[in-house]
Amino acid sequence: MTGSIDQTCKLWDVGTGNCIETFRGHEDEVLDACFNSTGNKLATASGDGTARVYNVFTGSCTQVLHGHQSEISKICFNPQGTKIMTASGDQTCKLWSAETGEELQTLEGHEDDIFSCAFNYEGDTIITGSKDNTCRIWKDEPSLIKAKAAEEEEH
C-alpha cells in the first residue's frame, strides 16, 4: 500500500505491480497507512487532520476519525485490532475504537509534534516519539487491572 500527496492511498498487487484499489476521501496528502492484523481493514492518516478506516475488500470508508487539531503523521492498530492510535502535530496521540470510530483517550504531555507511535506486542504499552526530543512510554492501566484481576481469580 502507498499513501500519496494526491490525497489517495493505493493497494498494489506485488506480483504484477498493478493497482488493485484506490482509497479516496482525504482533503490533503496521506502521510501514513497501516493494515490491521487480519488485513481486512486499512487505516490512513492525513495532513487534513483526519484518519480514515476502510474495508479492504469493498474499498468503502467505514469511519472518519475527527478530533486532532493538526496533521496526523502516524497511525497504527493495536495487535488485537480493537484500537487505532494516531499521532499528531497537535502534540497529542489519540486512541480510537476500531469498530465504532469513537475517541477513547487522548495522550498529552509532549511539548512538540508527535511523529511516531507504536503498541507493544500485548497492546498494553504505547511508546510515542516527539520533535521535543523525548519518547514517552504509556501503560494502558485498565487492561493491566483486568489482567491482574484475572490472575488473582486463577489463584
Keywords:
4-stranded antiparallel sheet; Methylamine Dehydrogenase, Chain H; single chain; 1 helix; 9% helix; mainly beta; 155 residues; 14 strands
Could you walk me through the main structural features you see in this protein, from its secondary elements to its overall organization?
- By secondary structure, this protein is mainly beta.
- It has one domain (2-154): YVTN repeat-like/Quinoprotein amine dehydrogenase (Methylamine Dehydrogenase, Chain H), CATH 2.130.10.10.
- It has 1 helix and 14 strands; from the N terminus they run ββββββββββββββα.
- The protein has one helix at 141-154, and strands at residues 2-3, 9-12, 19-23, 30-35, 41-46, 51-55, 61-65, 72-77, 83-88, 92-97, 103-108, 114-119, 125-130, 135-139.
- A 4-stranded antiparallel sheet has the order 4-5-6-7, with no helix packed on it. Strands 8-9-10-11 form a 4-stranded antiparallel sheet, with no helix packed on it. Strands 1-2-3 form a 3-stranded antiparallel sheet, with no helix packed on it.
- 32% of the residues are buried.
- Mean pLDDT is 92; it is low at 143-150.
Strand-residue proportion = over 45%
Named CATH architecture: 7 Propeller
Uncertain stretches of 5 or more adjacent residues: 143-150
CATH superfamily: YVTN repeat-like/Quinoprotein amine dehydrogenase
End-to-end distance, in Å?
Answer: 46 Å
* SSE succession: EEEEEEEEEEEEEEH
Share of residues in helices: under 10%
- The tally of helices reads 1
CATH class: Mainly Beta
Radius of gyration, taken over Cα atoms and rounded to an integer in Å: 16 Å
